[in-house]
Amino acid sequence: MIRAHSVETVRAAEAQAMAGLPEGELMQRAAGGLAEVAAARLEDSEGSTVVGLVGSGDNGGDTLYAVAELADAGYACAVVVLADGGRDALRQEALETAEDAGTIVHVAADDEEAATQVVAEADLVLDGIVGIGGRPGLQPRAARLVDAIDDDAWVIAVDVASGLDPSGETGEDDAVWADETVTFSTAKPAHLLPAGEAATGRLTVVDIGLDLSEAVAAVERLDYDDVALLWPVPGAGDDKYSRGVLGVVAGSEAYPGAAVLTTTAAAEAGVGMLRYVGSPTPVGLVHAAVPEAVIGTGQVQAWAVGPGLPAEEPEPSGHSQLAAARVALASDLPVVVDAGGLELVDGPRPAPTVLTPHAGELARLLTRLGQGSAGSAPEVTTDDVGADPLAHARRLADLTGATVLLKGATTLVVTPGHPVRSQADAPPWLATAGAGDVLTGVIGALLAAGLEPHDAASLGALVHGVAADRVSGGGPLRALAVAHGIRPTVRDLLARGRTAPV
Ligand SMILES: NC(=O)C1=CN([C@@H]2O[C@H](COP(=O)(O)OP(=O)(O)OC[C@H]3O[C@@H](n4cnc5c(N)ncnc54)[C@H](O)[C@@H]3O)[C@@H](O)[C@H]2O)[C@@H](O)CC1
Ligand SMILES: [K+]
């Protein structure tokens, strides 16, 4: 699992580490790790010129010491001072070390033209304008210099891409767009959340010795090795019932395929048993495509409700299906609710619940629930959710007490009382009709096996994304192929867990 810690947590760990170390030791470690990564990238790209953009804080200090090491190693190095107050505002010892090693110093406020030229010519740029002490946005001069960076240059953000909100709460267009971020001891929320992830680029964590083992993470991301830890694997004493029975209420005369996709994915995820509830056309299709499924209601351990369910415009043949959906939602069993099923959600349920909206569905649901509780809450739009996905997912989680899985290039899983999970495993090709139905089937299978909603949703998102990646192989995919990719993906991820060193 990748964990990101808040700025406050990192600063506390830093203070604790510094208490037992000589002054400046942490910065030396940070700068040393940074210089090592930079040198490796220069070697790979046969680059020779380095520019550090430096601000007044410790982020600038890290950068100055790293540039000094690169200058010592023979690279042609310059720094561009962006701190208000120029040279005097920098850490003097760090500046002297860089200059002694042969670094040329330009003060942007004194000669912006010369500074712009040196930036434009660099093969590698170290962004040390601001780090975790930064406020969102760049000052105009910094923005102009960042604009001057050559498209072919390798841009390394030191700790956090300058201009981002380190907490990843608010998005910011005016930020350094890094190819890589070198951060220290732990990821920061901005690296893993939609508001900052794209500007972060590749994330490289350099260990500087902060102890965060007991610290609560602000954001988590499951990785491949977590599958073996979390995936429900049957034991010798299990039978189909003990492994979990999933009831699927999905598909309709208008959208019969959703039933096939959801049940196929649940079967591929290895559910103990499947029950399917629907109208005649999808029943026929499920019968043919997933012969393992039992048609009709019966005892289940969890429900998957909603893909292809026209809850707003019920079909004449779908009344008993809609009634089954309402019974499932009113039950004390775990439920994953998607698409049409979300129209039936009217507040908290007393049992484990996963809601899987995309941005538009989340906006509609918040508008509806917000109006219900506050009387005159303003309408929430899809654009509102797009601009601030985490806050809106949190709002729905708070209103319903449910786990909210907000789909997107980065999928967020928000459960009250848990660190946010953020998964970015899928290729953009997965943005295709039916992909959500597959995800619902996988999460349903995991809930039926007894996983907590937070784990079921994030593990489901991971496996769904990895399966899509494998199926795509860099090209188009279709949702049914992703559903069929779930089984080999889980098998290989479990095998990876068995062979991983203990
Ligand atoms: N906390 C830690 O554990 C460690 C921190 N280190 C480095 O120290 C950094 C944090 O240093 P600081 O706390 O000095 O803070 P920063 O270096 O992030 O920047 C703070 C300074 O920038 C100014 N500023 C804030 N937002 C700005 C903006 N948008 N535009 C222009 N100026 C802005 C502030 O007024 C302040 O003077 C980390 O990101 C990391 O690079 C490392 O040296 C090693 C360990
Ligand atoms: K930075």
From TrEMBL:
<feature type="binding site">
    <location>
        <begin position="58"/>
        <end position="62"/>
    </location>
    <ligand>
        <name>(6S)-NADPHX</name>
    </ligand>
</feature>
<dbReference type="InterPro" id="IPR029056">
    <property type="entry name" value="Ribokinase-like"/>
</dbReference>
<comment type="function">
    <text>Catalyzes the epimerization of the S- and R-forms of NAD(P)HX, a damaged form of NAD(P)H that is a result of enzymatic or heat-dependent hydration. This is a prerequisite for the S-specific NAD(P)H-hydrate dehydratase to allow the repair of both epimers of NAD(P)HX.</text>
</comment>
<feature type="binding site">
    <location>
        <position position="162"/>
    </location>
    <ligand>
        <name>K(+)</name>
    </ligand>
</feature>
<dbReference type="InterPro" id="IPR000631">
    <property type="entry name" value="CARKD"/>
</dbReference>
<feature type="domain" description="YjeF N-terminal">
    <location>
        <begin position="10"/>
        <end position="216"/>
    </location>
</feature>
<dbReference type="GO" id="GO:0016301">
    <property type="term" value="F:kinase activity"/>
</dbReference>
<keyword id="KW-0521">NADP</keyword>
<dbReference type="GO" id="GO:0005524">
    <property type="term" value="F:ATP binding"/>
</dbReference>
<keyword id="KW-0808">Transferase</keyword>
<dbReference type="GO" id="GO:0052855">
    <property type="term" value="F:ADP-dependent NAD(P)H-hydrate dehydratase activity"/>
</dbReference>
<comment type="function">
    <text>Catalyzes the dehydration of the S-form of NAD(P)HX at the expense of ADP, which is converted to AMP. Together with NAD(P)HX epimerase, which catalyzes the epimerization of the S- and R-forms, the enzyme allows the repair of both epimers of NAD(P)HX, a damaged form of NAD(P)H that is a result of enzymatic or heat-dependent hydration.</text>
</comment>
<dbReference type="GO" id="GO:0052856">
    <property type="term" value="F:NAD(P)HX epimerase activity"/>
</dbReference>
<feature type="binding site">
    <location>
        <position position="258"/>
    </location>
    <ligand>
        <name>(6S)-NADPHX</name>
    </ligand>
</feature>
<feature type="binding site">
    <location>
        <begin position="131"/>
        <end position="137"/>
    </location>
    <ligand>
        <name>(6S)-NADPHX</name>
    </ligand>
</feature>
<keyword id="KW-0067">ATP-binding</keyword>
<dbReference type="Pfam" id="PF01256">
    <property type="entry name" value="Carb_kinase"/>
</dbReference>
<keyword id="KW-0456">Lyase</keyword>
<keyword id="KW-0547">Nucleotide-binding</keyword>
<dbReference type="Pfam" id="PF03853">
    <property type="entry name" value="YjeF_N"/>
</dbReference>
<protein>
    <recommendedName>
        <fullName>Bifunctional NAD(P)H-hydrate repair enzyme</fullName>
        <ecNumber>4.2.1.136</ecNumber>
        <ecNumber>5.1.99.6</ecNumber>
    </recommendedName>
</protein>
<feature type="binding site">
    <location>
        <position position="437"/>
    </location>
    <ligand>
        <name>(6S)-NADPHX</name>
    </ligand>
</feature>
<comment type="subunit">
    <text>Homotetramer.</text>
</comment>
<keyword id="KW-0511">Multifunctional enzyme</keyword>
<feature type="binding site">
    <location>
        <position position="358"/>
    </location>
    <ligand>
        <name>(6S)-NADPHX</name>
    </ligand>
</feature>
<keyword id="KW-0630">Potassium</keyword>
<dbReference type="GO" id="GO:0110051">
    <property type="term" value="P:metabolite repair"/>
</dbReference>
<comment type="similarity">
    <text>Belongs to the NnrE/AIBP family.</text>
</comment>
<dbReference type="InterPro" id="IPR030677">
    <property type="entry name" value="Nnr"/>
</dbReference>
<feature type="binding site">
    <location>
        <position position="308"/>
    </location>
    <ligand>
        <name>(6S)-NADPHX</name>
    </ligand>
</feature>
<keyword id="KW-0418">Kinase</keyword>
<feature type="domain" description="YjeF C-terminal">
    <location>
        <begin position="223"/>
        <end position="493"/>
    </location>
</feature>
<dbReference type="GO" id="GO:0046496">
    <property type="term" value="P:nicotinamide nucleotide metabolic process"/>
</dbReference>
<feature type="binding site">
    <location>
        <position position="59"/>
    </location>
    <ligand>
        <name>K(+)</name>
    </ligand>
</feature>
<dbReference type="InterPro" id="IPR004443">
    <property type="entry name" value="YjeF_N_dom"/>
</dbReference>
<feature type="binding site">
    <location>
        <position position="159"/>
    </location>
    <ligand>
        <name>(6S)-NADPHX</name>
    </ligand>
</feature>
<feature type="binding site">
    <location>
        <position position="436"/>
    </location>
    <ligand>
        <name>AMP</name>
    </ligand>
</feature>
<feature type="binding site">
    <location>
        <position position="127"/>
    </location>
    <ligand>
        <name>K(+)</name>
    </ligand>
</feature>
<dbReference type="InterPro" id="IPR036652">
    <property type="entry name" value="YjeF_N_dom_sf"/>
</dbReference>
<keyword id="KW-0520">NAD</keyword>
<dbReference type="GO" id="GO:0046872">
    <property type="term" value="F:metal ion binding"/>
</dbReference>
<keyword id="KW-0479">Metal-binding</keyword>
